[in-house]
Hints:
The protein is of the alpha/beta class. The protein has 15 helices and 15 strands. The strands form five sheets. A five-stranded mixed sheet has the order 11-10-12-9-13. A hairpin with a 3-residue loop joins strand 2 and strand 3. The chain is globular. The relative contact order is 0.15. The structure holds glutathione.
Amino acid sequence: MVLLLALALFGAACTSGDDEGSDDATESSDSGDEATPDDEAAAADEGSEEDVAAATGAEGSTLQAVQDAGVLRCGVNGQLNGFSLNEGGEYSGLDVDYCRGVAAAILGDPDAVEYVDLTAETRFTALQSGEVDVLIRNGTWSAARDGELGLDWTVTAYYDGQGMLVNDDDPAQSVADMDGYLICVQTGTTTELNLETYFANLGISYEPVNVVDEAAVTENFSSGACDAYTTDRSGLASFAATYTGGEIRILEDVMSKEPLGPATREGDEDFFDVVQWVVFATFQAEEFGIDSTNVASFDAGDNADIARFLGQEEGQTVGTGLGFPDEEWAVRVIEAIGNYQEIFDRNIVPIGLDEGLNQLWTEGGLHYPPPYR
Ligand SMILES: N[C@@H](CCC(=O)N[C@@H](CS)C(=O)NCC(=O)O)C(=O)O
């Protein structure tokens, strides 16, 4: 009872990031400085052991529950241009596309999604407690989140790294020049842990200004309460795309590895498979030259691999074997959201980022879908 009440209160207090005043959004600048790398697994922001117990309890099959409900509850950011932006209830972005892809695959309707905006701090509790079915919120796959947090990370949909943003007229050319800086950093993120490690390795100090969402970053950065802002480089690009407080600059430093992708609850194997293969399908379609405009009429010719991907191989059971309702699921995904290149061009190119590692393995990137057979 106590646990349920605590979860309910925590959720109610924190899930509406948009509504939080900036006073509440700025926390003591002391707290982040005290974490050590050993604290990472147990970081307060990353859910308690009780949360894990709730997650691994008898939830039943999420896949079945989603199919029974006819709607997918997708935990997203809601404030992150390029990934998940909530504009009056209209959602767009790479993360949003994957919510839509999963809904298209298992429910036959990419619009059958209920989006739940989550802050960095509340996101894992929301997944653990069953408030959302899947978490697709620019989340980094890390060992502690995979293990002790009781989550499963499906596949990396966006390879990122942490960066640093400063005012254009700031003298710093790299993070090494930033001794003693006041740095805006979001609580509940890998970012605050990496920041400490990176500065310690450089042998310089900093003062964290802890904030809970992008609105608070904007306020603190534009007022000069922070000299710099650190987060995933995609988050910095997203911030820079809409920031109107003056000229800003992103330093060259890549401070960490941030593999971002969807997470499901541990022990939820069939749903995990479905979410994972929806992401793989977007890589695979690109590899086959299949996109949203040609998928409905694509001629597989003599290519059995393509025929199978499109659900056209005689007697195939690979799709239903994974948990999909039929063999044409991948066609619905690509019709709804396109292949990865289309998803990238639609969402990420407008915020000014290059593909980097987010390309097929055949083009020097890390996207390598396992064989669909
Ligand atoms: N990838 C990192 C950082 C994720 C994160 O929450 N980033 C911030 C900065 S891009 C964010 O989403 N802020 C928007 C918000 O919380 O409303 C993680 O998983 O911890």
